[in-house]
Write a structure and sequence with these properties.
Largest interface: B-C, 22 and 21 residues
Structural class of chain A: alpha+beta
Strand content of chain A: 35-45%
Largest sheet of chain A: 6 strands, antiparallel
Oligomer: homotetramer
Helix content of chain A: 10-25%
Number of domains of chain A: 1
Number of strands of chain A: 6
């Protein structure tokens, strides 16, 4: 899935760059699109993020359109990996790359659980 | 109550100013100090904010120390008003002023409730 | 102008509500749409926000689609007022209302300036 | 260096957890303390962050005091690594760990530069 990122004025720091922390929010927006819009899940995610990595490749300056691509790159018993690429749309230039590890979680029982089959089938389609 | 504001790099926009929205977060930090540290209340506030106003008076540039003053300026049956002044500490220059109206709220019953007497007594001491 | 708000998971607080400060960011997003998309201005705004008010009318819970309307409600020599209404789209229910006062600003000369005629003509079309 | 983290109500998501993206902001706050308070540098950092990783170990719930430790774990010609541990203070329980790679940067010339000797000497003291 690849779609435009709606950035906000407040995302940019005093240098005019998208702040380094906001990239994890962009990843979260991609997860939301994947999970809610593509996989028809609930907006209050039933998983936890166990790990996140961002590699900042080039500058994302205020006023430049950005888009993000999210791909399921690995599926395990309870966890899966989503990989991300953020690009400056006009130049198709990579701005940042990253990955997050998600673990299926039962918030009532407060423990990790196996990925349900229905979710697994949808995950590979992202 | 008047205390130093711990600002964050991400609070500042591409002009080097504290972003206009973050002032409401500064007000919220002041409410937290008043409510949790002074009034010994729970961090998950039992009230709702019904109204907020900010008047931006002068620039808060990155690198300038800021402080905030919070005062209870009105107490009604179910609601009260907190007033705020944010200053650039070194010059004692007013950066912004504002006020918020809070209404006591029962989140389980999902309705507004009168301010308990114990809370009322503490409110006037802020 | 009225358009959908792209909310973010991080906008919601521990009660599942859009955080009170994020409404000023939603107003800022509306300004961006008005200024950049409608008025063809630069993303690095040539004006300052002098005042902002939000009245919180009803709950915006996580998972509810929101939209925002922005209207130019007053134009003076150097300043103008934008008014906002945020609604829960499905029910057309008002979630919040507010207004901000903008002042045209020359960031190099560091002083307020009159609204240029071309901007004035575009402002009344918002 | 280890010091208390001033968290904000807006940092917590609808589950009552510190949002996953805000950890990078906490790392940034630690960098600010290290760079400005310890190393006497400018608040407008003269370096870029090239990479960031967070491993989420246990829950940081609203109302729990957090602290952060930052250590310089590697110094190269132009870049260095800072490592972080965030703990729930009362239990001394690790909440998250991570690292960021910084590259010295000349924002006027728009290129990476070697770490000045004076900075290098201060870095190893963090």
């Amino acid at each position: 899935m690849r779609f435009p990122l709606e950035t906000r004025y407040a995302d940019y720091d005093s240098k005019g760059h998208a702040n380094n922390a906001v990239y994890l929010t962009y990843f979260e927006m991609a997860r939301h699109h994947a999970w809610v819009d593509r996989m028809h899940g609930d907006a209050d995610f039933p998983f936890i993020v166990a790990e996140a990595t961002v590699r900042y490749v080039s500058e994302a300056m205020i006023g430049q359109a950005l888009d993000i691509e999210i791909v399921t790159s690995e599926v395990r018993t309870k966890a899966w990996v989503w990989s991300y690429v953020i690009r400056a749309t006009d130049e198709d230039r990579v701005v940042a790359e990253g990955r997050t590890v998600q673990v299926m979680y039962d918030y009532e029982a407060r423990r990790t659980v196996p990925i349900p089959d229905a979710v697994r089938a949808l995950l590979v389609a992202v």
